[in-house]
Amino acid sequence: CSSDLLEEPHDPDTSGITAPPVGQTRTDGSPVPTSDEVVMSAVLEETDLDPADARGDLTLAGDLDIDELGRWAIAADVEHALRTTFPDAQVESWSTLDDILTAARMATAR
After folding, report:
1. Residues 54 and 37 sit within 8 Å (Cβ to Cβ)
2. Rounded distance, CA 46 to CA 83, Å?
3. What pLDDT sits at residue 110?
4. How far apart, in whole angstroms, are the C-alpha atoms of residue 69 and residue 45?
């Protein structure tokens, strides 16, 4: 994490998409997106998903029509936004929206 971020504890619950922590901001006063917001932004860039229909159990290939290239685009967007990296094998194993949410949450909990 960047030194200009105020750390907030992350809920280890991966049952769904969580709301951003209240009051989390950068030193310049701008809000810091949660890992869930970063993932959803990346997924929405690659799909026609209505955010109201987002569920962790949606499959990337079947429900969201995300191919391998789309999965890597999402991974790159999330890695860039969270300033982290995911092992190739982990990205290749993602099959549901919850898999990406969980990986991003774990990355920000380090």
Report:
1. no
2. 20
3. 73
4. 13
Residue 21 pLDDT: 43
Residues in the chain: 110
E strand or H helix at 37: helix 35-46
For residue 92, the tally of other CB atoms under 10 A from its CB is 13
69, 75 in Cβ contact below 8 A? no
How many Å apart are CA 95 and CA 20, to the nearest integer?
24
Under a CB-based contact definition with an 8 Å cutoff, are residues 26 and 5 in contact? yes
Q: Contact 64/58 with Cβ under 8 angstroms?
A: yes
pTM here is: 0.73
What are the backbone dihedrals phi and psi of residue 59, each rounded to the nearest 5 degrees, phi first?
-85, 145
Tell me the one-letter amino acid at 67. Answer: D
For range 77-86, the mean pLDDT: 95
Predicted confidence at residue 28, as pLDDT, reads 74
